[in-house]
């Protein structure tokens, strides 16, 4: 059977992946866990999410599914932060006899949950139609993520994946400052990058894989394989780890991005790739945010932003100018595209006027006065005006990304890109 769980945490604490790690151990009393647990990040722009908008799924071989169902529901009731207004847990159980019929249905549902906006009633109607065993708490919004996670488990070959080693704190330490040796994270990064990424932000000298909220997670190491993330985790020096789990995830895959044919298609609460031409010089507004606009092939324009948390990425954006051809990746909010990555496909030429060179001496000529001709002091040759010449831009074509400290869970880091047609500039 497959078990999907979502929305058990709150902004103040708890973590659905921690509940998944507990159940990984406890459910072995009822059967055998068949594969890696899944951590599935859903649409990152949903306003009613708690923190990272993650759901989990477990796959178990058991002869007593009813006991498993009862145990899981009791643990959700015990550990979920149901007292929180925004927390609305959902649990879904898919029995093996229903795998075949639900595989395409929940596969589609997964894609919709990651890229679009799904209403609670949509999930409840699907559960009713296929008579899926489930339990929703309060308004049951967590049923959306629980179904999506089951869809991921049923269709492992249909989506790109990475892994995360999640280490959890002892319960008595929850809510207290985390005790870590920062240099051990930089050392782990030095020895395992590019097999792992987003452990640290070298440019901004930050450890980025340690959360700051009161949840049970001590740290999470992301990477390409279970072996490499576990190797990196073994180098970390910190307070005692209560338990850990290695999750297969859709993090770092760009699974959330839709391809927009034009700017008119872009809707808030969705994420896109959009090609266009820079139509206005970037400007820095209050708060340090950098705003500019692009125009698509149909003449539609949209504002784009590199917000202050993107740090040094803003310096790159400030170098753009009208006429530059770009492909932007990011999420839409209030009619503005919040940039996660930028591909600079073509740079507009930059020109300046300068004193002409003497055609005989090849020396720059001097003006004979305001509005007058230019004359070579050596040979006396005259030229009527300045000349226009192209200047090399302080910018290269290629792929650029925000720094690790500003990266969303789902955004694919450039270290994972396999393209050879364009320069790649990973942020470190």
Automatic annotation (TrEMBL):
<keyword id="KW-0819">tRNA processing</keyword>
<feature type="domain" description="TiaS C-terminal zinc ribbon">
    <location>
        <begin position="355"/>
        <end position="395"/>
    </location>
</feature>
<dbReference type="Pfam" id="PF22641">
    <property type="entry name" value="TiaS_TCKD"/>
</dbReference>
<dbReference type="InterPro" id="IPR053870">
    <property type="entry name" value="TiaS-like_TCKD"/>
</dbReference>
<comment type="function">
    <text>ATP-dependent agmatine transferase that catalyzes the formation of 2-agmatinylcytidine (agm2C) at the wobble position (C34) of tRNA(Ile2), converting the codon specificity from AUG to AUA.</text>
</comment>
<dbReference type="Pfam" id="PF23783">
    <property type="entry name" value="Zn_ribbon_TiaS"/>
</dbReference>
<feature type="domain" description="TiaS FLD">
    <location>
        <begin position="140"/>
        <end position="256"/>
    </location>
</feature>
<keyword id="KW-0963">Cytoplasm</keyword>
<dbReference type="InterPro" id="IPR024913">
    <property type="entry name" value="tRNA_Ile2__agm2C_synt"/>
</dbReference>
<dbReference type="Pfam" id="PF08489">
    <property type="entry name" value="TiaS_FLD"/>
</dbReference>
<keyword id="KW-0547">Nucleotide-binding</keyword>
<feature type="domain" description="TiaS-like TCKD">
    <location>
        <begin position="2"/>
        <end position="132"/>
    </location>
</feature>
<dbReference type="InterPro" id="IPR013696">
    <property type="entry name" value="TiaS_FLD"/>
</dbReference>
<keyword id="KW-0436">Ligase</keyword>
<dbReference type="InterPro" id="IPR055394">
    <property type="entry name" value="Zn_ribbon_TiaS"/>
</dbReference>
<keyword id="KW-0067">ATP-binding</keyword>
<comment type="similarity">
    <text>Belongs to the TiaS family.</text>
</comment>
<protein>
    <recommendedName>
        <fullName>tRNA(Ile2) 2-agmatinylcytidine synthetase TiaS</fullName>
        <ecNumber>6.3.4.22</ecNumber>
    </recommendedName>
</protein>
